[in-house]
Design the sequence.
């Protein structure tokens, strides 16, 4: 029997949503200030309106749902799901009013792409977009990226059969409380902000010869998009705009940092570094990365895309790093990327689908799940092959030894399959509109795994249903399905429950 | 005297060869280069468009920038121009002296200079580790860059300010939280 | 581990040395990736 959620449940959810909207309203002060300093009055007005809507709704919710009670797991999931649905809606106001988007849906698409750290974009005439609006696009990556890491560690961990962290696989136990966890995440972000913006800015100034203001601008934008593995760039030709291997190198460091889990950052920072190499997740991602890189490079060599080693390695390695970390930066344009067929397509698509580490801003199935799935399958196969009396080691190492229980294996496999289903359904919708299979699959994986690399399917004239499909994929993929399922269950029981 | 005539003759022949070569430079759009890059690889082409973004004087005698030849140069969005899709741009490298004195590159409320450039289309260039760009040898300014005016929407500012005030009021008018039933 | 965690709970703050090391390791990873990629690319071009 379905039990209807009570007013009490709604109040808790409402209160925390109110808090989230208020926080985003405060964050909106940053682009507002930027617009003020730059005397960008149209964006200024639209940011003020956006802040007003966030602040008013937030204040209203806090007012009618008083009392900071402890957030239950399912309440938290509903808050997360609604946040990633509604924040882009209101956050799209500045985009919608900018005149750079063909429709309200296009503006919502970009806002969702920003917050989900995907990076697919429907913006038009990006090269003439106001800097404060560009900043807001990239800030959405930062808010969404930092937000999802905290949500993943605090909420996705524990409770519910489909979470990755069912049972013992949590790596958030290194710090004693949620607060210190959140603080450490911000410390990591701050370190990379300072180091990253400095490195990128210096590269832009010394190597590229940009003015210092533009160096700082590009540095900041690329930091947000790289470290939060988002993929938006301030100009229309992505990272290809900079025509610089040095710039790509620094961007690559940020991408790698962004795809690393919180636990890895902690170990790198505080010690216990050697143990990382024994982790299942580390070994999995190293293996999948090497394999997909090899596939991509061999594929490119086979089609004769690049005739010298320097060219093949620089372009191939950057794209595969971008794909596997789920960033979505590109040094080749979409129409050229579409020609990367065969093995190269396989390598890139697989890398995107597999994704980065869990509790990082990267998307995809995620390395820990991939590792657990492979290990579980391998164990089952060995069970069959070996004589009955042989004991198969059913454990795995992730910071310490854990049991690979059948529940954990099932959880990992179920979510992995859900991602595969998501990618295939998205590809199916694309194909229904006449997009060739390879392109449809590539774009679908890119959307569902929060990557952002495009082969040209994503463009303002694409069918509305396809836009809605990718938006849904970005939402589901970012939240690893669970939060959305909890929301749906919540709404269903609100309607049908007793 | 004879030497002088010979020198002028040689110079004249040299210049005619160059101008004939440039006259044979295919007139292309960025879209052509994107669609059929191998067809134009290594060839001298002429493209016309707006310079946008940044002028990167790299200190090695070259300047890098990007040329966009979409409709936005002539009809900026901010002036109410139509939306015609994404930008169509290509990176260009030119001798630094060609880049000096150009009006600022296009951006927000700024239309960059519209130029005609002629150069070799480098596709997956070997000496730049696979980069694709236009190696410009000649540049001609067609239209100078100009500032663009934007028309603000006062209604939006007023509505936003009102909502912020509402939010403040909701937060602070209410001293003691209502007891939950 | 408990004591360390307790200590860290209070003193999570800038261990700049750790931060610098972690950033340096990230750079090393990217350089390694580049070198391995270069080697694979060379092999790939030799084969094809």
Sequence:
């Amino acid at each position: 029997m379905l039990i209807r959620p009570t007013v009490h449940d709604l109040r808790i959810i409402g209160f925390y949503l109110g808090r989230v909207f208020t926080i985003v309203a405060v964050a909106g002060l940053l682009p507002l200030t930027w617009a003020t300093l730059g005397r960008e009055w149209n964006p200024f007005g639209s940011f003020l309106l956006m802040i007003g809507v966030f602040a008013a709704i937030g204040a209203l919710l806090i007012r009618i749902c008083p009392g900071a009670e402890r957030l239950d797991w399912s309440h938290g999931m509903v808050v997360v799901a609604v946040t990633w649905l509604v924040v882009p809606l209101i956050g799209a106001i500045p985009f919608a009013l900018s005149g750079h988007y063909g429709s309200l849906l296009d503006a919502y698409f970009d806002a969702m792409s920003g917050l989900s750290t995907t990076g697919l974009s429907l913006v038009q005439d990006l090269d003439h977009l106001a800097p404060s609006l560009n900043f807001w696009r990239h800030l959405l990556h930062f808010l969404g990226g930092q937000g999802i890491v905290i949500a993943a560690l605090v909420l996705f961990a524990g409770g519910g059969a489909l979470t990755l962290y069912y049972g013992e696989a949590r790596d958030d136990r290194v710090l004693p409380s949620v607060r210190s966890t959140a603080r450490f995440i911000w410390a990591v972000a701050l370190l990379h902000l300072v180091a990253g913006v400095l490195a990128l800015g210096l590269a832009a100034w010394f190597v590229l010869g940009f003015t210092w203001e533009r160096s700082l601008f590009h540095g900041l934008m690329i930091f947000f998009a790289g470290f939060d593995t988002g993929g938006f760039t301030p100009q229309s030709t992505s990272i290809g705009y900079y025509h610089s291997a040095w710039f790509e190198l620094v961007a690559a460091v940020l991408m790698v940092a962004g795809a690393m889990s919180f636990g890895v950052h902690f170990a790198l920072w505080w010690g216990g570094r050697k143990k990382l190499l024994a982790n299942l997740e580390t070994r999995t991602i190293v293996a999948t990365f090497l394999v997909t890189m090899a596939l991509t490079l061999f594929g490119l060599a086979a089609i004769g895309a690049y005739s010298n080693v320097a060219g093949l390695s620089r372009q191939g390695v950057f794209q595969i790093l971008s794909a596997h970390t789920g960033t979505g930066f590109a040094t080749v344009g979409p129409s050229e990327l579409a020609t990367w067929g065969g093995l190269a397509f396989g390598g890139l698509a697989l890398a995107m689908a597999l994704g980065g580490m869990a509790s990082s801003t990267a998307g995809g199935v995620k390395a820990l799940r991939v590792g657990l799935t492979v290990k579980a399958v391998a164990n089952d196969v060995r069970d069959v092959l070996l004589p009955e009396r042989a004991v198969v080691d059913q454990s795995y190492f992730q910071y310490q030894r854990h049991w690979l229980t059948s529940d954990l294996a099932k959880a990992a496999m179920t979510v992995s399959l859900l991602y595969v289903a998501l990618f295939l359904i998205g590809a199916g919708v694309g194909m229904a509109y006449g997009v060739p299979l390879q392109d449809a699959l590539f774009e679908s994986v890119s959307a569902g795994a929060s990557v952002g690399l495009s082969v040209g399917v994503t463009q303002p004239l694409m069918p509305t249903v396809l836009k809605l499909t990718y938006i849904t994929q970005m939402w589901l993929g970012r939240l690893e399905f669970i939060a959305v399922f909890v929301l749906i269950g919540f709404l269903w029981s609100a309607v049908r429950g007793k | 005297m004879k030497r002088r005539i010979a020198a002028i003759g040689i110079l004249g022949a040299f210049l005619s060869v160059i101008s004939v070569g440039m006259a044979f430079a295919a007139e292309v759009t960025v879209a052509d280069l994107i669609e059929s890059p191998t067809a134009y690889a290594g060839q001298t082409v002429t493209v016309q468009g707006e310079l946008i973004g940044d002028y990167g004087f790299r200190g090695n005698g070259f300047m890098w920038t990007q040329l966009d030849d979409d409709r936005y140069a002539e009809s900026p969005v901010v002036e109410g121009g139509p939306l015609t899709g994404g930008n169509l741009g290509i990176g260009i490298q030119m001798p630094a002296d060609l880049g000096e004195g150009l009006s600022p590159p296009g951006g927000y409320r700024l239309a960059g200079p519209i130029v005609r450039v002629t150069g070799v289309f480098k596709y997956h260039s070997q000496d730049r580790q696979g980069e694709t760009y236009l190696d410009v040898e000649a540049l001609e300014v067609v239209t100078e860059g100009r500032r663009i005016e934007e028309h603000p929407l006062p209604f939006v500012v007023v509505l936003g300010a009102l909502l912020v005030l509402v939010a403040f009021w909701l937060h602070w008018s209410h001293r003691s939280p209502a007891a939950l039933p | 581990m408990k004591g360390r965690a307790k200590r860290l709970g209070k003193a999570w703050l800038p261990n700049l040395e750790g931060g610098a090391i972690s950033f340096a390791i990230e750079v090393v990873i990217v350089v390694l990736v580049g070198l391995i990629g270069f080697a694979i690319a060379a092999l790939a071009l030799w084969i094809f």
User: Anything to note?
Assistant: Strands of chain B lie at 26-27, 44-57, 62-68, 89-95, 110-111, 114-125, 131-143, 146-147. The mean pLDDT of chain B is 89.
